[in-house]
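thought: fold this chain, then report.
action: predict
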Amino acid sequence: MGQKVNPIGIRLGITRDWTSKWYASKKQFPLLVHTDFRVREFLKKRLADASVSRILIERAAKKVNITIQTARPGIVIGKKGEDIEKLRAETAKLLGMAMLDVRLNISEIRKPELDAQLVAESISQQIEKRVMFRRAMKRAVMSTMRSGALGIKVRMSGRLNGSEIARTEWYREGRIPLHTFRADIDYGLAEAKTTYGVIGIKVWIFKGEVFDQAQLDRQAAEPAAVETAAAATPAPAAAAPAATPAAAASAPSAGAEVAG
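observation:
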């Protein structure tokens, strides 16, 4: 099952959220799905150099909010915000809406090495520049594991190194629990268009497990219980315990003994 199903689609509502959020009737549904596809295609093409990972679309009350998740927000925004205004106008035209009803938000990806889509696109760009595919795969795996991922798997298919027969090669480090639904697994797919054919690149990145609220509360309570138990245990005795005032008064002083 883990090998046959898209790891993002199977985790929708568990650890992942939908990229399009809106409600529509049966008649409008196909049109809106196709419009979302065209908008994503247009933005990905226009922002090919901006390292765009995913585009989130939200519709509410005849208004559209589009969030662009990118590793290079400066390229998207442009000088004094000129590029983003042009992009907003073109997107509104594509949607058939007024420019005021379309809003573009830019979300920065702090660690592009932990984003599977960006890792896959980075490898595809290297393959198109005739870098050896094994070197590109190993470099991507090393940088991702160094950034704090618990596991990564990279798989490439096609005429690798221009060979006559297409084949598949993969490289993995750490663990990728595809059957665990609570596992936060990011998945990315990219294509390298070379002179000898198309090479497909798939990347899976495991970032940890997402627990439900009850498990999180239980985990938070465990350290608190340990701290309470530590506070209840008596502190280790000192080397020479101090005498109480009453005992000090009853005991004869050293000076009195000498005088006797």
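thought: worth noting. Helices lie at 29-46, 73-77, 82-95, 116-128, 133-146, 213-232, 245-250, 254-259.
final: tokens above.
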